[in-house]
């Protein structure tokens, strides 16, 4: 099945690209510049496309991103530190981001006669991002069937939607993903900060998966206390 992958350059989407390349026909990677402070992730997406020798498009929607204000990813507001599941991480939500990106990707897929669009949304995001939940995925795919009726039939492939980040790490290890060549940190510095929600989630996922984490972090131990505090705050 000819499949286009939305690839940010993060661990999840790069693992998805490897999965599609192994199990389907990977036609191209599509990435988005929406004015994110961690634009460095796009270098990892570019490297992933080069590994597979497929076209890679970085679509500039930064003008739209500037209007999606209020997120720490697109404004000057500090990125919160701590566990990803904490309520403080809501400040990293970019309104309607996945819906916007998916709509564009489906248009590209229809134009090039691809059969599926793959996105790496996953279960670990459910509490924070409404456009990463199974209900959204099902509704979006239904909407696209109507939008492209008579023009194209394109499936939305989201194999990670009910998986944890640790599950994705295990799958990436099975597929031989070069994890060191993926980028997660929302700070976008020279190295992963080790303190933002995505860094904590990334480090915890490798630990839970029993897979060695090759990522250099500015603070490689912060995740332990962040996870401890998160667990302490959960209902008994």
Description of the molecule:
The chain has one domain: 3-Layer(aba) Sandwich (Rossmann fold), CATH 3.40.50.620. The protein has helices at 11-23, 41-52, 62-67, 97-111, 134-147, 165-175, 197-209, 222-232; strands spanning 2-6, 25-33, 56-60, 116-118, 155-157. A 5-stranded parallel beta sheet has the order 3-2-1-4-5, with helices on both faces. The radius of gyration is 17 Å and the shape is globular. The chain is α/β, with parallel strands linked by helices. Helix 1 (11-23) crosses helix 6 (165-175), helix 6 packs across helix 7 and helix 7 (197-209) packs across helix 8 (222-232). Helix 1 (11-23) links the parallel strand 1 (2-6) and strand 2 (25-33). The chain is built from 8 helices and 5 strands; from the N terminus they run E-H-E-H-E-H-H-E-H-E-H-H-H. 43% of the residues are buried. The mean pLDDT is 91. 40% of the residues lie in helices and 11% in strands. GO terms for molecular function: ATP binding; ligase activity, forming carbon-nitrogen bonds; zinc ion binding. InterPro entries: QueC, Rossmann-like_a/b/a_fold.
């Amino acid at each position: 099945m000819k499949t286009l992958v939305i690839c940010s350059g993060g661990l999840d989407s790069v693992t998805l690209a490897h999965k599609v390349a192994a199990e389907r026909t990977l036609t191209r990677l599509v990435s988005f510049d929406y004015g994110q402070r961690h634009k460095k992730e796009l270098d990892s997406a570019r490297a992933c496309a080069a590994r597979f020798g497929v076209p890679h498009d970085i679509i500039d929607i930064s003008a739209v991103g500037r209007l999606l204000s209020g997120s720490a990813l697109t404004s000057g507001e500090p990125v919160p530190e701590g566990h990803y599941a904490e309520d403080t991480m809501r400040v990293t939500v970019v309104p309607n981001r996945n819906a916007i990106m998916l709509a564009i990707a489906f248009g590209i897929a229809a134009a090039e006669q691809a059969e599926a669009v793959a996105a790496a949304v996953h279960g670990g995001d459910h509490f924070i991002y409404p456009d990463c939940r199974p209900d959204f995925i099902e509704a979006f795919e239904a909407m696209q069937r109507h939008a492209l009726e008579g023009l194209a039939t394109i499936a939305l492939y989201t194999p990670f939607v009910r998986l944890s980040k640790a599950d994705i790490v295990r799958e990436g290890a099975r597929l031989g993903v070069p994890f060191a060549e993926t980028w997660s940190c929302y700070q976008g510095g020279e190295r992963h900060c080790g303190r933002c929600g995505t860094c904590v989630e990334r480090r915890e996922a490798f630990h839970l998966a029993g897979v060695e984490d090759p990522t250099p972090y500015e603070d490689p131990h912060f995740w332990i206390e962040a996870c401890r505090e998160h667990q302490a705050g959960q209902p008994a």
